[in-house]
UniProtKB/TrEMBL annotation:
<keyword id="KW-0472">Membrane</keyword>
<dbReference type="InterPro" id="IPR010227">
    <property type="entry name" value="NADH_Q_OxRdtase_chainM/4"/>
</dbReference>
<feature type="transmembrane region" description="Helical">
    <location>
        <begin position="209"/>
        <end position="226"/>
    </location>
</feature>
<dbReference type="InterPro" id="IPR001750">
    <property type="entry name" value="ND/Mrp_TM"/>
</dbReference>
<feature type="transmembrane region" description="Helical">
    <location>
        <begin position="502"/>
        <end position="524"/>
    </location>
</feature>
<keyword id="KW-1133">Transmembrane helix</keyword>
<protein>
    <recommendedName>
        <fullName>NADH:quinone oxidoreductase/Mrp antiporter transmembrane domain-containing protein</fullName>
    </recommendedName>
</protein>
<feature type="compositionally biased region" description="Gly residues">
    <location>
        <begin position="153"/>
        <end position="164"/>
    </location>
</feature>
<feature type="transmembrane region" description="Helical">
    <location>
        <begin position="370"/>
        <end position="391"/>
    </location>
</feature>
<feature type="transmembrane region" description="Helical">
    <location>
        <begin position="263"/>
        <end position="283"/>
    </location>
</feature>
<feature type="transmembrane region" description="Helical">
    <location>
        <begin position="232"/>
        <end position="251"/>
    </location>
</feature>
<dbReference type="InterPro" id="IPR003918">
    <property type="entry name" value="NADH_UbQ_OxRdtase"/>
</dbReference>
<feature type="transmembrane region" description="Helical">
    <location>
        <begin position="333"/>
        <end position="350"/>
    </location>
</feature>
<comment type="similarity">
    <text>Belongs to the complex I subunit 4 family.</text>
</comment>
<feature type="domain" description="NADH:quinone oxidoreductase/Mrp antiporter transmembrane">
    <location>
        <begin position="226"/>
        <end position="509"/>
    </location>
</feature>
<feature type="transmembrane region" description="Helical">
    <location>
        <begin position="398"/>
        <end position="418"/>
    </location>
</feature>
<dbReference type="Pfam" id="PF00361">
    <property type="entry name" value="Proton_antipo_M"/>
</dbReference>
Amino acid sequence: MDVMLVLAAALPAAGAFAVWGLRRRPSVHWIGAGAAALGFAAVALLPLERGSGAWVSAGGKLSGAWWHQVSVEWAPSLHLEFSLAVDGVSWTLALLTALLGVLCCVHNAVGAEQRAADLLGADRAASASLQVPAGSFETGGPSPAARRAAGVPAGGGAPPGDGASGPVQDPPGSVETGGPLPAAAPVHGVPSGAGGEGSDGDRWQSPTLTALLLAVQAAATLVFLADNLVLFFIAFEAVLLPMWAIIHRFGDPAARRRAAAKFALFTVAGSLLMATGLFVAIADTGTADLGAIIVGGGVDDDASLLVFALLALGFAVKAPLWPLHSWLPDAHTAAPTVGSVLLAGVLLKLGTYGLIRVAGGLAPDGAETAAPVLAVLASLGILVAGLVCLRLPELKRLIAYSSVGHMGFVVLAFAAGTEAGIRAALFGNLAHGLVTPLLFFLAGALKARTHTGSLGALGGLRLAAPALAGLLGFAALASLGLPGLAGFWGEAFTVYAAAERGGAWLVPAAAAAFGAFLAAAYLLRMLRRVSHGPVAPAVIGVGDVSAAEAAVWAPLVAGTLLLGLVPGPLLTLFSEGLL
C-alpha cells in the first residue's frame, strides 16, 4: 500500500501533463477524467492494511502511528525528504480532494462535448439557412430548386434557346450577402460554461482547464500527505499557480484579472509568513519531520507563541479567517464553476488543515495562548458573514461569503481546544467540503441557464425546473445545519465545545449560535427569491437537471446524507489521526 501514497499524487500529475500534451485531440477531456479517477482509486485504497496507530520507537526514530509511510532522501542538508504519510485525518481530506477532482474533470468533459454539439448544431442550422429561394442568386435567374420543379434536370443548363452555355455555378461569395459561405465553427476544446458565464466561448481552451484541475488535485493531495515540512511548503505553493491560472484565464472576463491579482497578493503574503514559521520550527527542533515534532511535543516554549502566530496568520489567509477573507468573495464570483468548487472544497481545506495539524501540532503551547484571539476573530467572522449575506443580491457571492462563516465555525471549534472541539472542527471542515461545492455546482448550472446570478432576476425555479430547485433546497438546508444532514454536527458541536469551556467562552458560543440563526435566515431568503414566487422571465424555459449533471452531483448529495445520518465512522477515523 505504500506505493499508493505516491500514486495518489503522481497519477493526477501525470494526467495533467498528458492532457496538456494531447490537448488537440477531441477526447482528451476524458483522459483527464480517467487520470483523476485513478488518483481517487489510489487514495480510496489507502485504509487497507493500515497500521495500528500506536507510536513505537525503532532505531532511535519514532514510527508506526501513520497508516502508511514512504520516505526518500532528497536534499538532507536542507532537511528536505520526499516523505509521505497518511492517517485518519489526512486521508479524509485527500479523499475529498480526489473526489472533487474527478467531479470537476467530468463536469468539464461533459461541458466540452455539449459545447461541441451546440456549435455543430448551430453550424448545420447556418448551412441550412443558406438554401435561399428562387431568384436569390446573383444571376437573377431561377434557383436550382425552381428549375427542378420546372422539369430542368439537376445540374443542367438552362432550357434550349435561353442562350445559357452551362450549369449555374454557386461559388463562394455568390449569395447576396457577398461574403463567403461560413465554415464550420471550431468545436474542439470549448466546454459549455467552462470559461465563466457569459464569456466568449472561443476564448476558452478546455483541455488546458482540465490540465490545471489535475494539477490542483495532485498538489493538494501532496499537501495532505506530506510528512516533511519543507515538502509541505513546496506542495502548498504548487497549488497556488494553477488555481491562479484557473481564475485569471477562465474566469469572468469582467472581473477575473482583479480577482486573480487579489488572490495572488493575499496568498503569497500568507505563504511568506507560513514559510517563516516553518523554518523557525525546523531550526528550533533540528528536524523537518512533522510527525516526530508533534509526538515530541512541538517546539520549545520560548518559540511556541512566535511559531504559532506566524503559521496561524499564514493559514488564516487561506482558511480564510476574518478579516483576511476579502480575496475569497471576489475569487469565487469571478472563477468558473469548477474553480469555485475547488476553492471551496480544496483550497480552504489547506488553510484549516494547516491550522489544526501543522500550527497546532508544532506549537501547542502557542495555540493555547492564542486561543482567545482566534475565538474572537472566528466569532466576528461568523457574525459579519451572516449579516453581509442577508443583503447580498448575487447568488455566487452569497455562497462565497457563507464560506467565511462556516470556516469561522471550524476555527472556533479548534480554538476551544477540547476533544469535542477538535473533532467538531475536523467534521465541519469535511462537511463544508461536500455541501458548498454542491451549492457552487448548482449556482453555476442556474447561471449558465439563465445568464444571471442576480437574486432579483430569478424566481419560480420550483415551477420551471423542480428537480434543480429541489437540489438547491437540499444543499441550502444542509448548509444551514439542518439535523440529519452533514452541516449539523460540526456547527452544533462547535457551540457545545465553546460553551463547555465556560466563563468568557460563553460569549463566542452565543455568537456562533446566533450565526447559525443568521445562516438559516439568509439561506431561506435565497430560496424564497430563487425558487418561489412567479416564474421570472430569465427562468422561463430553463432545462431541468440532466443525466450528466445528476451523475456529477450525486456523490456530493450521497456524502451529505451519509455524514449527516451516520457520523460515527468519520469520528472514529479522526481518532486514528495524529494531532
